[in-house]
Design a protein that fits this description.
CATH superfamily of the largest domain: Aminohydrolase, N-terminal nucleophile (Ntn) domain
CATH class of the largest domain: Alpha Beta
Strand content: 15-25%
Oligomer: single chain
Helix content: 25-40%
Largest sheet: 7 strands, antiparallel
Distance between the termini: 28 Å
CATH architecture of the largest domain: 4-Layer Sandwich
Number of helices: 18
Structural class: alpha+beta
Number of domains: 2
Length: 470
């Protein structure tokens, strides 16, 4: 896991399985997707009559315990673990979002980022207490539910939304899953012996013993209830544009997307990096954890042995959850420790997934030199990140991106490496085995599949509502 890799978005889980312990299944599903967000976690359960929501700030294992899960009894559940892409970290912004007008209720979890929130807020004509686009969508759905059931409401609201979105939502008796027409974020369906599950990643299906059926299609709304699995199409897909960063970094190595193992795709990235950027060295090491798969591939092609040179403390949250630069600098020390006996006197090839600001890579190079490395050659499994992401990954402004203004040689000087090699965009795409046009590659090439409003920033909705971000 790259030490300063782009911040993640969210993990979604939904289950319809009467007679099963749905809250516990959801807890495990969220636990498997903890890497997708560490700010808050929540579960909404329905017993067919009432929806009960429990959510709080913190990690899944901090928010829930045996006693809490025991109170969440029902036939279906939706769960969410959050990294804030819009809205700040407050309890109000934790998900699932819950709406209840006394007659009908809904719960909703969202992964992604809308780009037309300004337009939607203007259309609604009022703002709500929370500052997330998720709350906005739930409000729109709730107002439609005065005249329709949740499925009918979703079929009216979803076509109005622009941007990257996956939703897992429920009313009292059905679970719904929806994916934006470009399919920017992943969403998978699975089968249980007595029900169905839906999750952002297949690793969450594996942990609860569900069999993968298929991915939710871009532009599709899926309903799961006692009538089985029902599919509707709320929009035509103009083109597929899965975020290629899911393969580079965001997804867990044991997940599968587009029929491919993330681990195997990352190994192939490493193999291609070794061909594109060879160098004489004694040892290939990874920046844990996402670097491991690629470092194995680099070693395989180069013939240079692969070993551990950096130890990661697994119990420190992702460095980038800590906001300030000084904390971030301290966080790396908490998180990564060099193994001097392995490193001393060696020429190292260090494989990582990305360089965002460059500060962490610079610290890692310095740390390895202090531990006695004679040379440090950095190899990156993504091309230089030159453009911000508006679809739910926190790379919000160009001035945060070291590669926006600096050439590769200037970045090499800044991080203090003996050499620096990034995989080519062609190489990255080739490693997935899928055509280039099936991915969103905007952070590398500036080609945004969904038009983005000018002056858009991370706190899109807060800016428009002029709400405090604290």
């Amino acid at each position: 896991m790259g030490a300063e890799s782009p911040k993640d978005e969210c993990g979604l889980f939904g289950v319809w399985a009467p007679g099963e312990d749905v809250a516990r299944l959801t807890y495990f599903g969220l636990f498997a997707q903890q890497h997708r967000g560490q700010e808050s976690a929540g579960i909404a359960v329905s017993d067919g009559h009432n929806i009960l929501v429990y959510k709080d700030l913190g990690l899944v294992a901090q928010v829930f315990n045996e006693a809490t899960l025991a109170t969440l009894q029902g036939d279906l559940a939706v769960g969410h673990t959050r990294y804030s892409t819009t809205g700040s970290t407050t309890w109000d912004n934790a998900q699932p979002v819950f709406k209840n007008d006394g007659v009908r209720a809904l719960s909703l979890g969202h992964n992604g980022n809308l780009v037309n929130t300004g337009e939607l807020v203007a259309r609604l004509g009022h703002s709500s207490a929370a500052t997330t686009d998720s709350d906005l969508v739930a409000t729109m759905l709730a107002s439609e539910m005065a005249h329709h059931d949740l499925e009918g409401a979703a079929m009216r609201v979803l076509p109005e939304l622009e941007g990257a979105f996956c939703f897992v939502m429920s009313d009292e008796r059905s679970v719904f899953a929806a994916r934006d027409p470009h399919g920017l974020r992943p969403l998978a369906l699975g089968k249980l012996p007595q029900g169905f599950v839906v999750a952002s990643e297949t690793c969450a299906l594996d942990i609860v013993g569900a069999t993968f059926i298929r991915e939710v299609e871009p532009g599709e709304l899926v309903r799961i209830d006692d009538r089985g699995l029902h599919s509707s199409r709320f929009a035509r897909s103009p083109r597929a544009a899965l975020c290629i960063f899911e393969f580079v970094y965001l997804s867990r190595a044991d997940s599968r997307m587009k029929g491919a193992s993330v681990h195997e795709v990352r190994r192939e990235m490493g193999r291609l990096l070794a061909i594109e950027h060879p160098v004489e060295a004694d040892l290939v090491i990874a920046v844990p954890n996402t670097g491991h798969s690629a470092a194995q591939g680099y070693s395989e092609v180069s013939g240079i042995p692969y070993g551990d040179g950096l130890h990661k403390n697994q119990y420190v949250g992702r460095t980038f959850i800590q906001p300030s630069q000084s904390l971030r600098e301290r966080g790396v020390k908490l998180k990564l420790n060099p193994l001097p006996d392995t490193i001393r006197g060696k020429r190292l090839i260090v494989v990582d997934d990305s360089i965002v600001r460059g500060t962490t890579t610079r610290q890692i190079v310095a740390m390895l030199r202090e531990a006695g490395a004679s040379e440090v050659h950095i190899r990156i499994t993504s091309p230089p990140i030159r453009w911000p992401c508006f679809y739910g990954i926190d790379m919000s402004t160009r001035n945060e991106l070291v590669a926006a203004d600096l050439a590769v040689e200037e970045i090499r000087t800044y991080v203090g490496a003996d050499s620096l090699g990034y995989i080519s965009l062609g190489g990255l795409v080739e490693s997935t085995g899928e055509p280039s046009e099936d991915f969103c590659r905007a952070c590398f090439d500036g080609e945004y599949p969904i038009p983005v409003p000018e002056h858009a920033g991370k706190f899109l909705l807060e800016d428009q509502l002029q709400l405090p971000t604290a």
